[in-house]
Amino acid sequence: EVRLAESGGGLVQPGGSLRLSCAASGFTFSTVAMNWNRQAPGKELEWVATITSDGTSYYANAAKGRFAISRDNARNTLYLQMNGLKPEDTAMYYCYKGDLRGQGTQVTVSS
Question: Please, where are the H alpha helices in the chain?
Fold first, then answer.
C-alpha cells in the first residue's frame, strides 16, 4: 500500500522559512518522480515543484528562486525547502506520487 505522510508545516512570518517533508512507503521511491502541490482555501490545486528519479527539478513560476525540492532515496523522503515565504504561499501542501497524495501539511504565512 502506498503511503505518503507530509510534515513540517506551520505558522511563519513573511520572509521566513520552512522545510516540508514527505515520508513515502509502499513503493520503490527512488524510481519515481515526485511532486509538491498546494491548495489554498477556495482555490484550485496548484503545482509547485517536481523532482524526477534522477534528481532533475522543475518549479512553478511562483516557486522559482525561493523553493527547493529534493529527495533522500535512502530515507524514502521528499523535501521542500521554502524560503522568503509570502502570505500568498499560505495553503495546504501535499506530496504526490502520480494521483496519490498524503493528508497534507498546512503552511500559514502571516504576521
Answer: none
Torsion of CA 99, 94, 34, 50, to 10 degrees: 110
Mean pLDDT of all residues in 96-103: 96
Minimal CA–CA distance to 71: which of 103, 18, 32, 38?
32
Q: Contact, 90 vs 14, CB < 8 A?
A: no
111 by DSSP, 3-state: which?
coil
Judge whether 19 and 82 are in contact, CB under 8 Å: yes
Report the chain's mean pLDDT, rounded to a whole number: 97
- Please enumerate in sequence order all residues whose Cβ is within 8 A of that of 70, keeping only pairs 6 or more positions apart, or say none: 51, 57, 78, 79, 81
pLDDT confidence band for 80 (50 / 70 / 90): very high
Task: Output DSSP code: residue 28.
Answer: -
